Amino acid sequence: MTQKPGDARLTSRMESGCLVIGLAGRWITQAVAGQDVALTRLTANGAKRARIDMSDVEELDTAGAWLVHRTRKDLSSQGLEVELSGGPAAYRDLVATVRDHEVSCPPPPPPDNALVALLLRVGRASHEVFAEAVNMVNFLGLTVVVLLRSLIRPGRIRFTALISQMEQTGLNALPIVGLISFLIGVVLAYQGADQLARFGAQIFTVNLVGMGVLREMGIMLTAIIVAGRSGSAFTAQIGTMKVNEEIDAMRTIGLDPMEVLVIPRVMALILVLPLLTFYADIMGLLGGAVMINWTLDISFFQFARQFNASVPVWSFWVGLIKAPVFALIIAMVGCYEGFKVSVSAESVGRRTTASVVEAIFLVIVLDAVFSIIFAVLGV
Amino acid sequence: MAAAQQSDSPVIEVHGLRTQFGAQVIHDGLDLTVRPGEVMGIVGGSGSGKSVLLRTIIGLIRPAVGRIVVLGQDMATLRPAQKRDMQQRWGVLFQDGALFSSLTVRQNIKVPCGNTRV
User: Fold this and answer.
1) What are the boundaries of each domain within chain B?
2) Angstroms from B103 CA to nearest CA on chain A
3) What angle do CA A302, A306, A307 make, to 5 degrees?
């Protein structure tokens, strides 16, 4: 390290059994870092006394004074008698002030054993997941109770909010749901045609597209898109209101946030998701038909005939029946996560992410449950 | 405030209030009386429990011990319908200006009048 004239400089020498530490230059916050380690390495070297000489110090602030104080303390603990000398009296006053205000840092906690730390992490995470699940079931119950109460007394439903939510979650989602379903129909048809052509069974591509879109793809994609664009929006809207204490203000003047915020959103999604699913089914089939027409030279008329003959109407209902259940789960998770936002803008973001992940996870789990139920029922 | 104007009985009474979150006690043995026409300011350093006190009085936080009486009615013993009547008589504005951000100023003013929906 090069020594500029402005730096803090340090010399140490022995003078008849006395360790003389000479400080020089500027002992200020910007300059002292370079001498920090050198000061901690000072040892008694057989000396009985030590003197810290500050006569050549040009400038001293609390950082420098603290280093002087620490050096004195270190040397004292090695059994030396330490005195300060040189420089104006103000320097010694500053060192004394720093000494009087010294706060000792608590020692850092000892690191846990790696195995224990792992167990702790796993335990905490499991406990969190369990508590989360209990809370969510709790909120689901509350939502259902308030929902039924609203249905018994429809006068308490907020229709303006309901219609507005239906527009935002349903109407405004039409372009994205339509496009994605159409493309998935195209992909299914293309992959199916490619494989089935090896057996000369191209015509069964129609069955594949029909069953795939109606039973699974239409509803799943719609649910995932809605979870991504509406579930997250619910969390962000309610979360922001929570941060702004609007929820508290609502409670104070006797408005129930469940009735005002949650019910319109849950009802809107339950009404809208089946409609969106139907629309996605149509668009998916259309995409499949276009692709089949293009690659396999099967006309739309042939497609319709084969579709009519091979795909039972039940597969349409199998897809559609899941829609209200998925809607309830997506809206419930979105609102639940919104209420869990604490008073910081950062937690709105964290909760929104959690809301989407949980909603999609639950939708897929429920879809598997539905598959098992339908398999047992034989539909 | 008809009841309050007729007599000189206090508008807000707090008796022996104790608020705590877990083991952390915020208030202990707090008494407070606000009489009709009186304007009261509560002063204190940040984190000293001013907001907690106000939130406790308006029922957002449940006190551990103590009685809160507003307009002569003990908040703890009110039935839900009576509580709703009470809630329609008071208002709160939090420090960040938490009006309902989705509404216009006019709609915000109309909310307590019951003809605008949030």
Assistant:
1) 2-87, 92-118
2) 11
3) 110
Strand pairing of B65-70 and B24-34? Answer: unpaired
Decide: pTM greater than 0.80: no
Size of interface A-B (CB pairs under 8 A): 57
At residue A15, the 3 state secondary structure works out as strand
Residues of A in contact with B110 (CB under 8 A): none
CATH 3.30.750.24 region(s) of chain A? Answer: 8-100
State the CB neighbour count (10 A cutoff) for residue A170: 20
Residues of B in contact with A161 (CB under 8 A): 117-118
Please, what CATH class does the domain formed by B2-87 belong to? Answer: alpha beta
Which of A223-237, A305-319, A337-351, B6-20 has the largest mean confidence?
A223-237
Q: What is the pLDDT of residues A9-31, one digit of tens each?
A: 888 888 877 888 888 888 888 88
Strand partners of residue A8: A25
Gap from A234 CA to chain B (nearest CA, Å): 14
Q: Name the more confident of A165 and A85.
A: A165
- The residue in chain B having the minimum alpha-carbon distance to the alpha carbon of residue A158 is B117
Query: What ipTM does this complex have?
Result: 0.74
User: pLDDT tens digits, residue range A210-239?
Assistant: 999 999 999 999 999 999 999 999 999 999
Residues of B in contact with A246 (CB under 8 A): 98-101
Q: Tell me which residue of A160, A158, A340 sits closest to A234, measured CA to CA.
A: A340
Q: What number does CATH give the domain A8-100?
A: 3.30.750.24
Q: What is the rounded CA–CA span in Å between residue A175 and residue A200? A: 36
Residue B3 banded pLDDT, cuts 50, 70, 90 = very low
Looking at the DSSP bridge assignments, the partners of residue A34 are: none
Which of A160, A161, A254 is facing B88, going by the closest CB pair? A254
For B117, name the nearest residue in chain A, comparing CA atoms only: A158
